[in-house]
Design goal:
7-stranded antiparallel sheet, about 15% helix, 18 strands, alpha+beta
Length: about 250
């Protein structure tokens, strides 16, 4: 798909107090999951997370051509899932503003749970998109005992228990930076605007480095989080969904 505006950002729209409140909430949920024996390892759609592959190398910021036919893991971080209404009330208005201001005007019907992500030194998320644009990428209803699962009996990616998400796909993605400047190095959100773009193809979105800043972009846009070289990076991610593009 072609769009003139590749992303929209808002600088320092949330206070340090709000950011710290989200960090504390996310950390508590990661801690509680570990106590219950639940994995907090971030996963990918093709299950290429660190713990699932033996003798694999990190993809880091390499391109797909550079790692072709190699045994690599695409992501290294911890996550927790948040669904507190007060966070939606804060975030969703900005996504709707960006959708209009950027000229996308995508039909949005639903939002998934928030993904709270924690990156340690060496952590990263290689090149990926959050969703293709075709109708085959819509969420399917998960029916316990009937829908397919992985070898551990877990729901497969692409399925959902949320009836409001069924038949929809990710259209707009949001990333909120929760860190105080200087708390981490590396870990930049980096876009790939495509080989046919007249301007620079690869772009590091430094606009969201100030605490409480967010970026909103189409979910089909390739992006990555470059490796963390120092400190711990905290972010909050949300995907909003709608019917397939026509």
């Amino acid at each position: 798909m072609v769009t003139n505006t590749m992303y929209w950002w808002f600088g320092s729209v949330f206070t340090p107090e709000i950011c710290q409140k989200i960090i504390s909430l996310g950390e508590s949920k990661i801690s509680e999951a570990k106590k219950q024996g639940v994995s907090t390892t971030a996963e990918t759609f093709d299950q290429k997370q660190k713990q699932a592959l033996s003798n694999a190398e990190p993809m880091q910021d390499k391109t797909w051509e550079e790692i072709k036919n190699k045994n690599v893991y695409v992501r290294d971080s911890e996550v927790a899932w948040l669904d507190e209404k007060w966070i939606y009330d804060l975030i969703l208005p900005y996504i709707h503003i960006a959708n209009k201001k950027a000229g996308w005007n995508y039909d949005i019907e639903e939002a998934e749970n928030f993904q709270f992500t924690k990156y340690y030194p060496g952590g990263f998320y290689g090149w990926h998109i959050d969703s293709p644009t075709d109708k085959f990428s819509t969420y399917k209803r998960y029916i316990p005992g009937i829908s397919p699962t992985d070898e551990k009996g877990r729901m497969l990616k692409g399925y959902t228990k949320n009836a409001n998400c069924v038949g929809n796909l990710r259209k707009i993605s949001m990333t909120l930076n929760l860190n105080v400047p200087g708390e981490y190095e590396g870990g930049n959100l980096k876009f790939d605007f495509g080989p046919h773009r007249k301007e620079e193809r690869f772009y590091e979105c430094l606009e969201i480095r100030p605490q409480g800043s967010m970026v909103v972009f189409p979910s089909y846009l390739y992006h990555q989080v470059t490796p963390i070289t120092k400190g711990t990076r905290y972010s909050l991610v949300l995907w909003t969904l709608g019917k397939p593009f026509r």
